[in-house]
């Protein structure tokens, strides 16, 4: 690379790194991310909040060329990206990159930006995969550069760094040169937003929605020679200086093209905040192993990381969205049903007296020795016996990754009820064979119920 400055180096990498130079394991991780993304997006398209978002867009949009997943509706590329990203995140089942120092849902903004652009021009599957791998790298490297203080200040990293990744990926898939990609990244950076106080509400899904939408707009602006200031990421008054107390811009380019964050992506089994998942694994393991009836449980003591205790210990959730961020409800549901899915987070289950009683027996303690993917669980029984387990890396994380067959099973569970078995298998096959497509628009066409595709 010949350019100076982190913004310019990242833009050159995104624009000029050939797909042939991306290692096959990284491309396969991109395919896995696509399978997971399409599955959760098709299912999320049926959610009531997504339906209301579509109604809001339809009230201000007169149509366009880009497909809206799961709906007989088309929109402009920016608005289609918004709606598809919203649907991808609304169930809280989308993939998550969750190393020490940051947490990013990577696919939910980057893939919708790519696919919306691909609906307006001819894009090959190989180009789409490469654009995702490069956009994900841009997104997560900027997240690392902003660091823990960015998250602790209240920024939802999926929304903020998602703007960077989406802008980079959209610009790449549009075939822009490195200077235009740099302008697109800057346009994404200056639009970046997302407040974590929105967790537990419909508007949390607006964060990746806006990231995808603004990323597409950023690439469009750059393609029309709208220019930015230099060093938008690392400069004085730039993204990192404004949004982080401890900016580390050197993390953007360190090992660029040699190490790939996509290899450490995770895939979720439960439709709740990722910080609840180690505990859920532990509770389900204990009650299943010893065949424990809910009525025999007199207490559930949970030790989790300080971030988990701080951000997911909602004591009395009243809505399904709040339940996703309640360690106490998720523990009670896991103990009662030996699973945590959408039904276990529903209004009906939230209102059940036995679940409320069990939830009130849950105790949460923050343990600084535990990481974000760890939990210690102790279940006290009426017999006086106690059951204990330690979870060090919950299922779906890099420590215990889901294999391709498990991702397929998740996809079928999510998509089957929407599209039916035959169309589900066809769509799943298309996702895995994306490299073979000469026109990516054929993929999204298959996500609409009743459409030929």
TrEMBL record:
Domain MmgE/PrpD N-terminal, chain residue ranges per copy: 10-249
Any GO MF annotation of the entry: lyase activity
One Pfam family, short name: MmgE_PrpD_N
Domain of life per record: Bacteria
Residue ranges of every copy of the MmgE/PrpD C-terminal domain listed in the record: 270-433
PANTHER family named among the record's database cross-references: 2-METHYLCITRATE DEHYDRATASE, 2-METHYLCITRATE DEHYDRATASE-RELATED
Family stated for the protein in its record: Belongs to the PrpD family.
Protein name: MmgE/PrpD family protein
Source species of the chain: Mycolicibacterium agri
